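User: I'm putting together notes for a lab meeting next week and I want to include a structural view of one of the chains we've been expressing. I don't have a solved structure, so I'd like a prediction I can at least talk through. The sequence is below, exactly as it appears in our construct file.
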Amino acid sequence: MAKVKVSFAPSVRRLPSYLHIIRQCQGNGDPYISGTVIAQELNLEPIQVRKDLAITGIIGKPKKGYPVDALIAAIEHYLGWDESHEAILVGAGNLGSALMGYQEFQLHGLKIAAAFDTDPSKVGAKIHGVTIRSMTELEVGIKDLKAEIAILTVPSPFAQATAETLVRAGISSIWNFTNTKLKVPDEIVVQREDLSSGYALLSVMMQNRKTRILAK
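Assistant: Thanks for the context. Below is the predicted structure for the 216-residue chain, given as structure tokens.
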């Protein structure tokens, strides 16, 4: 899996959207797809699409575009989606349960092998086929499952302490869905998903739309 430079982060976030469009093209039996077609579908500039795709190492052909099969393979390889990754989820609440039911993860090589929670009523049960285990088993469970990724969906006050336990148990990557900025060793990869930021952007877009309508 490629190591992402901070400057490449926006490009990486766009690649899954590109992949969806390219797969549609593949389903239609088209051997090539142009950056312009992808750009039109997503309301982007063609040069932006070409720059984004360039980070995967693939090169398009003049007047033809990109070979569809090779482009899909290049994007999946760059994203690490052509490999299998064992993950555990910590915090089987509403958000955690929803993530366990998200089928796209398995299509991209991410397998949630188990989940951990402090609620005794959940321990031993299965949510979307994932077994819920006690938090007291967390460190042993991580080592038994050989998990490398932890999806963190615990209440924010418990996030830092849980992260420290995860690091001690050998987790190398944390997908953080809490509001806490985690303090972990530099070698630990952390990706924080701030749902409030996404909603903030949506709200601003809605306000801009209303302003444009009123201005007409």
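A couple of points you could mention at the meeting. The first strand starts at residue 32 and ends at 33. The chain is about 45% helix and 15% strand.

User: Perfect, that's what I needed.
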